[in-house]
Q: What sequence folds into this?
């Protein structure tokens, strides 16, 4: 009986002590890495130097979505923002990467779409940029569908999403 009581005490001690081990910290800090004085950001209209009509609209929408998802900065208008991101799409290129062997017309079945651009982040009224001009790119492989425009739009969205993620990362982790 005495032996069972001793085992029970050890088991209770172990059950209470184990959670304390998992509560210790390794010094990792959760939260924003953004500079504490910068709380808000605005997105200037995206310039489009490519021939892809929807590129600037898709890119601006995805930039806003990704900054809101990240949560490090509050999205606001250009006159109220602590900093402004300026983005330009330089090129959108598309190339065929796979062909369907059964297709009698010998048309491609998969395409790769690549979007290249650059961005900078400026503080209103300052000449020195917060984030210097930096090149970014995104790419996506998509399949040829019945309507090729739908597939291309989907590929453009995925490529711009990669770019938007990089822009948000480079902006919020620039310190």
A:
């Amino acid at each position: 009986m005495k032996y069972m009581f001793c085992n029970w005490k050890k088991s209770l001690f172990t059950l209470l002590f184990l959670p304390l081990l998992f509560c210790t910290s390794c010094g990792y800090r959760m939260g924003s890495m953004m500079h504490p004085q910068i709380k808000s950001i605005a997105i200037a209209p995206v310039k489009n130097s490519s021939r892809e009509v929807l590129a600037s609209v898709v890119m601006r929408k995805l930039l806003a979505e990704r900054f809101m998802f990240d949560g490090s900065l509050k999205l606001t208008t250009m006159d109220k923002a602590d900093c402004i991101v300026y983005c330009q799409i330089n090129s959108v290129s598309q190339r065929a990467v796979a062909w369907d062997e059964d297709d009698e017309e010998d048309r491609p079945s998969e395409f790769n779409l690549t979007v290249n651009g650059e961005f900078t982040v400026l503080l209103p009224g300052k000449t020195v940029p917060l984030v210097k001009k930096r090149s970014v790119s995104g790419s996506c492989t998509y399949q040829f569908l019945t309507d090729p425009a739908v597939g291309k739009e989907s590929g453009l969205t995925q490529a711009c999403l990669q770019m938007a993620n990089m822009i948000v990362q480079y902006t919020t982790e620039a310190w």
In short: The mean pLDDT is 83.
